[in-house]
Protein backbone atom coordinates (compact mmCIF):
# COMPACT_ATOMS: atom_id res chain seq x y z
CA UNK A 1 0.00 0.00 0.00
CA UNK A 2 1.39 3.36 -1.03
CA UNK A 3 -0.01 6.53 0.51
CA UNK A 4 -1.89 8.71 -1.97
CA UNK A 5 -2.09 5.95 -4.60
CA UNK A 6 -5.61 5.95 -6.01
CA UNK A 7 -5.41 2.32 -7.15
CA UNK A 8 -4.12 1.16 -3.72
CA UNK A 9 -7.13 2.91 -2.24
CA UNK A 10 -9.45 1.09 -4.65
CA UNK A 11 -7.74 -2.22 -3.78
CA UNK A 12 -8.32 -1.49 -0.08
CA UNK A 13 -11.94 -0.42 -0.79
CA UNK A 14 -11.19 3.00 0.64
CA UNK A 15 -12.62 4.64 -2.45
CA UNK A 16 -15.42 3.20 -4.55
CA UNK A 17 -15.04 1.53 -7.93
CA UNK A 18 -17.19 -0.72 -10.09
CA UNK A 19 -15.33 -3.95 -9.36
CA UNK A 20 -15.68 -6.65 -12.01
CA UNK A 21 -13.15 -9.21 -10.72
CA UNK A 22 -11.23 -9.90 -7.53
CA UNK A 23 -8.99 -12.61 -6.11
CA UNK A 24 -6.29 -12.58 -3.44
CA UNK A 25 -3.68 -10.92 -5.69
CA UNK A 26 -5.69 -8.97 -8.26
CA UNK A 27 -8.59 -6.58 -8.49
CA UNK A 28 -10.24 -5.22 -11.66
CA UNK A 29 -12.72 -2.39 -12.08
CA UNK A 30 -14.33 -0.29 -14.78
CA UNK A 31 -12.30 2.69 -15.94
CA UNK A 32 -13.82 5.94 -14.70
CA UNK A 33 -13.28 7.53 -18.17
CA UNK A 34 -13.91 4.64 -20.54
CA UNK A 35 -12.31 4.81 -23.99
CA UNK A 36 -14.35 1.90 -25.38
CA UNK A 37 -17.66 0.18 -24.55
CA UNK A 38 -15.61 -2.21 -22.39
CA UNK A 39 -12.71 -0.60 -20.53
CA UNK A 40 -11.54 -2.44 -17.45
CA UNK A 41 -8.44 -1.71 -15.36
CA UNK A 42 -6.70 -4.80 -13.97
CA UNK A 43 -4.19 -4.27 -11.15
CA UNK A 44 -2.08 -6.23 -8.71
CA UNK A 45 -3.28 -5.49 -5.17
CA UNK A 46 0.35 -5.03 -4.19
CA UNK A 47 1.74 -1.66 -5.19
CA UNK A 48 4.14 -1.76 -8.14
CA UNK A 49 4.81 1.62 -9.77
CA UNK A 50 5.17 0.54 -13.37
CA UNK A 51 5.42 -2.56 -15.52
CA UNK A 52 9.17 -2.07 -15.99
CA UNK A 53 9.59 -2.70 -12.24
CA UNK A 54 8.51 -6.32 -12.66
CA UNK A 55 11.32 -8.86 -12.39
CA UNK A 56 11.73 -12.62 -12.54
CA UNK A 57 10.30 -12.79 -9.04
CA UNK A 58 6.99 -11.55 -10.45
CA UNK A 59 6.44 -14.03 -13.28
CA UNK A 60 3.54 -15.64 -11.41
CA UNK A 61 1.84 -12.33 -10.79
CA UNK A 62 2.44 -11.14 -14.37
CA UNK A 63 0.89 -14.32 -15.72
CA UNK A 64 -2.08 -14.04 -13.39
CA UNK A 65 -2.75 -10.48 -14.52
CA UNK A 66 -2.92 -11.60 -18.15
CA UNK A 67 -5.05 -14.66 -17.40
CA UNK A 68 -7.44 -12.52 -15.30
CA UNK A 69 -7.65 -10.02 -18.18
CA UNK A 70 -8.59 -12.86 -20.53
CA UNK A 71 -11.30 -14.03 -18.11
CA UNK A 72 -12.72 -10.52 -17.90
CA UNK A 73 -12.74 -10.22 -21.70
CA UNK A 74 -14.58 -13.56 -21.90
CA UNK A 75 -17.04 -12.46 -19.23
CA UNK A 76 -17.68 -9.19 -21.08
CA UNK A 77 -18.26 -11.00 -24.38
CA UNK A 78 -15.50 -9.27 -26.35
CA UNK A 79 -13.27 -12.25 -27.15
CA UNK A 80 -14.74 -13.11 -30.55
CA UNK A 81 -14.86 -9.52 -31.73
CA UNK A 82 -11.41 -8.86 -30.36
CA UNK A 83 -9.89 -6.90 -27.55
CA UNK A 84 -6.75 -5.09 -26.58
CA UNK A 85 -4.61 -5.26 -23.45
CA UNK A 86 -2.60 -2.08 -23.01
CA UNK A 87 0.07 -1.28 -20.42
CA UNK A 88 1.35 2.28 -20.45
CA UNK A 89 4.82 2.67 -18.94
CA UNK A 90 6.05 6.14 -17.98
CA UNK A 91 5.67 9.54 -19.58
CA UNK A 92 5.95 8.94 -23.32
CA UNK A 93 3.40 6.14 -23.14
CA UNK A 94 0.99 8.37 -21.22
CA UNK A 95 1.03 6.61 -17.87
CA UNK A 96 -0.97 8.75 -15.45
CA UNK A 97 -1.51 6.43 -12.51
CA UNK A 98 1.74 5.03 -11.14
CA UNK A 99 0.37 1.71 -9.92
CA UNK A 100 0.87 -0.74 -12.75
CA UNK A 101 -2.25 -1.79 -14.56
CA UNK A 102 -3.54 -3.47 -17.68
CA UNK A 103 -6.25 -1.72 -19.67
CA UNK A 104 -8.66 -4.27 -21.17
CA UNK A 105 -10.44 -2.55 -24.04
CA UNK A 106 -13.05 -3.86 -26.44
CA UNK A 107 -16.50 -3.56 -27.91
CA UNK A 108 -15.47 -1.41 -30.85
CA UNK A 109 -13.01 -1.51 -33.72
CA UNK A 110 -9.66 -0.07 -32.70
CA UNK A 111 -7.05 1.69 -34.77
CA UNK A 112 -3.42 0.78 -35.30
CA UNK A 113 -0.87 2.15 -34.72
CA UNK A 114 -2.01 3.49 -31.36
CA UNK A 115 -1.83 7.25 -30.90
P1 LIG B 1 -2.78 5.28 -17.48
O1 LIG B 1 -2.79 6.52 -18.34
O2 LIG B 1 -2.33 4.06 -18.23
O3 LIG B 1 -2.02 5.49 -16.20
O4 LIG B 1 -4.29 4.99 -17.14
C1 LIG B 1 -4.91 5.36 -15.94
C2 LIG B 1 -6.38 5.06 -16.11
O5 LIG B 1 -6.97 5.03 -14.84
C3 LIG B 1 -7.14 6.09 -16.96
O6 LIG B 1 -7.79 5.43 -18.03
C4 LIG B 1 -8.12 6.70 -15.96
O7 LIG B 1 -9.37 7.03 -16.54
C5 LIG B 1 -8.25 5.59 -14.94
N1 LIG B 1 -8.64 6.01 -13.60
C6 LIG B 1 -8.08 7.01 -12.86
N2 LIG B 1 -8.68 7.10 -11.67
C7 LIG B 1 -9.64 6.15 -11.64
C8 LIG B 1 -10.62 5.75 -10.68
N3 LIG B 1 -10.72 6.34 -9.49
N4 LIG B 1 -11.45 4.72 -10.99
C9 LIG B 1 -11.34 4.11 -12.19
N5 LIG B 1 -10.44 4.44 -13.13
C10 LIG B 1 -9.61 5.45 -12.87
Q: Notable features of this structure?
A:
115 residues; alpha+beta; HIT family, subunit A; five-stranded antiparallel beta sheet; binds adenosine monophosphate; globular; 22% strand
Overall description:
- The protein is globular and about 35 Å long.
- By secondary structure, the protein is of the alpha+beta class.
- The chain has one domain (6-106): HIT-like (HIT family, subunit A), CATH 3.30.428.
- A five-stranded antiparallel β-sheet has the order 1-2-3-5-4, covered by helices on one side.
- It contains three helices and five strands.
- The structure holds adenosine monophosphate.
- Residues 6, 17, 29, 31-33, 41, 88, 94-97 line the site of adenosine monophosphate (AMP).
**Helical percentage:** 10-25%
Structural class by SSE content: alpha+beta
Q: What Rg, in angstroms, do the CA atoms define?
A: 14 Å
Characterize the main sheet: 5 strands, antiparallel
Calculate the terminal CA-CA distance, rounded to whole Å.
Answer: 32 Å
Assign an overall shape. globular
Strand proportion: 15-25%
User: What is the number of E strands?
Assistant: 5
The side-by-side strand order for the widest beta sheet comes to 1-2-3-5-4
CATH class division: Alpha Beta
Quickly give the CATH architecture: 2-Layer Sandwich
Which secondary structure elements does this structure contain, and how are they paired or packed?
Layout (H helix, E strand, L loop, with lengths): L5 H6 L7 E4 L3 E5 L7 E7 L14 H18 L6 E4 L3 H4 L8 E5 L9
Antiparallel strand pairs: 1-2, 2-3, 3-5, 4-5
In short:
The protein is about 25% helix and about 20% strand. It is α+β, with helices and mostly antiparallel strands.
